[in-house]
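Q: I'm writing up a methods section and want to include an example of the input and output format. Could you take the sequence below and give the corresponding predicted structure tokens, formatted cleanly so I can copy it straight into the document?
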Amino acid sequence: SLLAATMLLGMMSFPAFAEGNAAEVTYEGSVEAPVVYETVQKAVDAVIASEQAGNITIKLLADPAETVVIKQQEGKNLTITAEEGVVVTSSFEIDGDGRHDTTKYLETITFDGIEFSSTKEINFITSQAKYTDPGESAHYSYPHNITVQNCKATGSQIPASSPVVLVKLKQYNNLTMKNCEGTNLHSLLQSSSMAGKGVIDGCKLTDSY
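A: Here is the clean output for your methods example:
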């Protein structure tokens, strides 16, 4: 009957949509349904604004198509993943919020199972530097405790002056790269001024230039 169907629908759990379908946020252990945001940056900003900590997953439902800035925060372990078939053509910039003491700041950020592709110069996962007033020196944001795993990146053999790079980080602490693949890239990883521990395992780069 119509009444029974209505009651059944009322008992079922559906994601709470917020005008779009670019990214879904899930808080581990929460009884609330995942929330879907109209842009990936809005999903990230909602996580930053939230008082909830712990393990948080941001699942990409579509290509962000713009640079996404992710600020690390105490107690929030972020995992960025993607729905099958989603191909990312833009960058993620990690803002470590200037916290470089990884004996104190233990939060993590993980990029897991994302497919990247670009025919233009790009660093898919990179670090954001903070700058003071013009003319003064840069203050680095110190991204920390970063894992990139099960990701694939594809570029095109454009000149080395316009490189396609999976991970490019500067002034950062602790990096693990596992089971990542790159094709037609300049580099899987470009790294400078790393402190702490670096692990690269099971990664493959073919047709580099």
